[in-house]
Amino acid sequence: MPSTPQEHALPPAPALTGKGPAARASESVTGLLRAWGAGDAQASDSLVRLVYAELRRQAGIALRREGAGHTLQPTALVHEAWLRLGDQHDARWESRTQFFAIAAQTMRRVLLDHARTRHALKRGGGAVQITLGGADREARPGVRPVEETSLDAVDVIALDDALARLAELDPQKARLVDLRYFAGLSIPEAAEVLGVSTATVGREWAVARMWLRRELES
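Now predict its structure.
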């Protein structure tokens, strides 16, 4: 089980030489992920220092999409997601991009579990609403947004049910929604994780959004 991230200031990661900061950080994360996956418990402490800020950014985006009234705070969401990531003993960590994609998907599962609990406590009332219209606006800087299909004020439980139906029809499109919307990956980053071309991701993303819109508006 990895250490739980803390909100206090974290010590800087060790500096590497020979490459730019982004390349060094990516290589450091990838190496630590592989060491963690191989059973090196100490690697998790070093990993936290490198990924915590990005995890908290992802948590903030996820909670903003759920709107006001959510009981979780970004730090708590990161902590719970981190614990679940630590339980994935059979995970094959391959890259920094893949890790953040899985982390975002894990946060979605945490939020969904909380939504189902709140829904049950209210005896069927007060469905949790999220906004499904910002994946392209919140893509990585420098990536040109594509035309957006708005899916606003969507019930998070209804969305999960729709994604489950999409996964039965086309698992790759369902995973792409996870990567683009929930993980906030750009089209090139999603293409890297899925092992396909950026053109393929662009086409499948457009089709997946249209399919979800029909499902959620019907």
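The first strand starts at residue 129 and ends at 132.
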